[in-house]
Amino acid sequence: MLRIKSKMKNYIMMMAITGLCSCGGQFAADSEGLEAAGGNFQYTVDKFYDLEVLRYRVEGFESLSLEQKKLIYYLSEAALEGRDILYDQNCKYNLAVRRTLEAIYINANDKETDEFKALEAYLKRVWFSNGIHHHYATDKFLPDFSVDYLKRCVNELDDDKLPLEAFGGSKTGLLDVIVPVMFDADLLKKRVNQADGDDLTASSANNYYEGVSQAEVEAFYDAMRDSADLTPVSYGLNSKLVKGEDGALKEIVWKKDGMYSGAIERILFWLEKAEGVAENPQQKKVIASLIEYYKSGDLKQFDDYSILWVKDSVSRVDFVNGFIETYGDPLGLKASWESIVNFKNLEATKRTETISENAQWFEDNSPVDARFKKPVVKGVSAKVITAAMLGGDCFPPTPIGINLPNANWIRQQHGSKSVTIENITDAYDKAAKGNGFKEEFVWSDAERELMETYGFVTGNIHTDLHECLGHGSGQLLPGVSQDALKAYGATIEEARADLFGLYYAADKKLVELGLLPNSEAYKAEYYSFMMNGLMTQLVRIELGNNVEEAHMRNRQLIAKWAYEKGMADNVVELAERDGKHFVKINDYDKLRTLFGSLLAEIQRIKSEGDFDAAKNIVEKYGVKVDLELHKEVKARYEKLNLAPYKGFVNPVYKTVTDGDGNIVNVIVTYDESFTEQMLRYSKDYSNLPTMN
Questions:
Q1: What residues does each domain of the chain span?
Q2: Facing residues of 401 across strands?
Q3: What number of other Cβ atoms are within 10 A of residue 127's Cβ?
Q4: Taken in order 239, 241, 242, 246, is the CA torsion positive or negative?
Q5: Would you say the C-alpha torsion 502, 505, 509, 510 has a positive or negative sign?
Q6: CA-to-CA separations, 382 to 22, 385, 420, 515, in angstroms, rounded
Q7: Rounded to whole angstroms, how far apart are CA atoms 385 and 317?
Q8: Tell me: the pLDDT tens digits for 556-581?
Q9: What's the pLDDT band for 4 if we cut at 50, 70, 90?
């Protein structure tokens, strides 16, 4: 007898707006999912506040071997077991808030009141953002239900349904903590504060530091660095820095038997199963090395793992799992936990393989100073992937491309691995069809036709170039630390990669290589990028606020700099018609030249570690917002009834077993709602104490 098993038991950055791009058919025989009449995949799952939840398709899963399907299943479970780590990293009170709200949601007697519905919407925001701060803007969002309602709901519940263990077993103790955390607008105001002049650690609500100032953090890690070390570890990447009772600073490492051990032990359980079905000896070594790193917490071991991972360019199934990106730390040191499980899209990968095969040509012909170019580009491995499972900081909001590892010396000596996640970009594209955005914000039919005809292909090409070559291009001068730009490092790095992609998107080389159909196609991406950077990404920001998030700062920096520097020649203008402003590009060739000039300067800043220049260019172009234009864009966008941010629910993988319990197939299904999935994840993958 065959049995279908699942963890069901009883029970989503950048293309979120059409034009905001960078970081169909029948299901297969062993897939189940939601299809409307006519066989159309239902991409939209839920919508609330400024958020929309989508589905993505795992096309091609059915063609994988049984061992590959099992590998994806085991890695997918590992990707889900670390969910609570990110909640806790984002803010130490997130788990207490989420678990309390979930208990109320599940057990409430009257679910038809306005206050309950407001609680439900707030809970969905918490799920989407992995905490009480907006996933992108990082501002704390406030409930639309009352304090009295929360207290009444908590007091009506049995004690065993609430997370009281960290609060002396008392409902009063719980409420004394979470009420101000949720309702006081001035407490824990921003998850990541990057305002110039503030103490960035003291004013950020994340859980990476406790009792330490920005100056103390910087001094602590500066003392560890040796400018003569050509292979430095990423100091501070996998730890919380705290001040002890004696005033001394110490790191609490995220590892087995350390902080987050409960979740890490479960991740290890599934990684060990994955090791047993690895595709080849190299992949087996990769997984074994990651296991060792989770056990030791040794950052040198993490580098060893990263090198092995980069060198595995043969395996079709691949994954990221660990403390990876540092955007959640205003100092760019501490890494959030994330995972993505994927497999290579063989046909689409021909595109990125062509790019990577010509990596040296792109490096040699870049408009940057020769001192900052890599003499020999090593190990650029690029592919288009199909995401199979998303976790941690890749979920529900999801990147569209990845380039890793982040350690500069590993990139230089061993290369990097770059991916474009095409089933995610496809889902964004399909979900945005006919939403009225282009009609409202694009200057004319000519630009709209360009975007409709070439937008998807040029958006993917820009992502390919950004991830495959942009992040992997250039080099630091000897003695320059990869952390030299401090709080501005992430914005500069994203600008560097975006500019590399923009500059080469217009190069005839792409047509010669068969990557673009003609020499006009790139204009679709140029228009989309400039419209986004100058105008439409403003829908993501609350009125009166500046730009905070690194990718948004990067896009505005590039667009505003090019707009200002091209003003004398009217390269780009903000044209007005019928009381509305539109981006109008008058000279695409000169715009490309401007992108090249800015790329040269941004690379210089990066290569020389010029902190003052980084600060000046980011603060001048990337931060400030024109309030009147902001009001106009927000008002126009609101009339469209669109959600500026999108994320995803994951598919569900079910194992089919024979009478002896052996897995004989794995089936992917798509019929889980956002609420169902979040409640199931909270039930099945809650591996941490409420307070850590």
A1: 3-71+647-684, 94-131+143-183
A2: 420
A3: 24
A4: positive
A5: positive
A6: 17, 10, 8, 14
A7: 9
A8: 999 999 999 999 999 999 999 999 99
A9: very low
